[in-house]
Amino acid sequence: MTIMAPDFGADPIYVAVIQFCRLLFVNSAFPGLIQFIERRKLYPAHRSAPLSEPVGGRNDISLPPAPLALTAPLAICGGLLFKHFSVPSGAILGSAVFVAAENVRYGRIAMPRNAKYVVQLGIGCYVGVQMVRDSLYIISSVIVPVMILIVLSLIYSYLCSLLIYRCSSFDFKTCMLMCSPGGLNEMSIIADDMGADAPKVAVMHSIRILSIVAFSYNLIGILEYFLS
Question: Which residue has the higher pLDDT, 158 or 15?
Fold first, then answer.
C-alpha cells in the first residue's frame, strides 16, 4: 500500500503509519479477541456438517516426508520466479505454491520444529523497521483515522466471519483469521499457532491481496469521482 500510494497521489508516510498501526493491532490483539469469541461462543451453532479429512492427506504418515534439501530450493525458486514476473507478494506466494505442490506430491514435508519461530522473529523485525523517526511525528494526527479503521475492521471481520461460517463448513476460528485485515504471512503463522486451518487462511489472504492490487486503482478512482 505504501508503494502504491504515490500512484494515487496519496502521502506514503501517512499510509505507512496507518498501515503499520493496523498490522500492529491485528497481529497483537486479534488472536486474543478470537480466543475470547471462541470461549464465549459468540457465534451461532454450525449447521453444515464438517468436512472429513481426505484419505491420504497431509497427515498420512505412511508416505516418506519430502527432504528439507528439496523444500528450500523449491521455495527459493518459486519466490524468485513470482518476484521476477512482478506478482503481488510474489516472494511468499511463489514459495507457497511450489512448496504446496511438493507437499501434494509427498504428503508431508520434513521441517525443523522451530522453523515457524524463526519466521516469526523475522516478520517482527521487518514490521518494526517500517517505523522510522518521521513516522513518530505524525502519529498524533492519525489517531482518529486509526481508531475508525480499527473499529470498522473489527465489525467487518466479525460480520464477514459469521457469513462465511454459516455458508461453509469451516470452523469459526478459521473464518475469523480468513477475514482478519492482516498480512498473508502473519495470519498464516497465527492460524498455525492457534490450531486453525492455515492453508485455507493462506489461500483466502492470497486472493484478497491479489484482488486489492488488481482492482484498487480503478475502485478508488470510481469512489473518488462519486464522493467529490
Answer: 158
**Angstrom distance (rounded) from CA 29 to CA 181:** 12
Q: Which cell numbers in the block locate residue 189?
A: 503463522
Check whether 58 has a pLDDT greater than 70: no
Average pLDDT (161-184) is: 90
Q: What whole-number distance in Å separates Cα of residue 30 and Cα of residue 108?
A: 29
Secondary structure (3-state) at 109: strand
CA distance 78 to 157: 31
- Band (pLDDT 50/70/90 cuts) for residue 13 is confident
- Residues 6 or more apart whose CB falls under 8 angstroms from that of 218 comprise none
Taking the whole predicted model, whether its pTM rises above 0.85 is answered as no
Q: Is the dihedral of CA 129, 199, 82, 116 positive or negative?
A: positive
| Average pLDDT taken over every residue of the chain | 80
Beta bridge partners of 66: 109
Name the residue type at position 121. L
Q: Which of 93, 105, 92 is nearest to 66 (CA)?
A: 105
Residues with Cβ within 8 Å of residue 79, at least 6 apart in sequence: 90, 91, 92, 94, 95
Contact indicator for 119, 189 with CB cutoff of 8 Å: yes
Residue 203's nearest CA partner among 165, 174, 166 is 174
Instruction: Give the C-alpha separation, 115 to 161, whole Å.
Output: 29
- At residue 66, φ and ψ (nearest 5 deg) are -70, 140
| 67: DSSP letter | P
Q: 66 in helix, strand or coil? A: strand
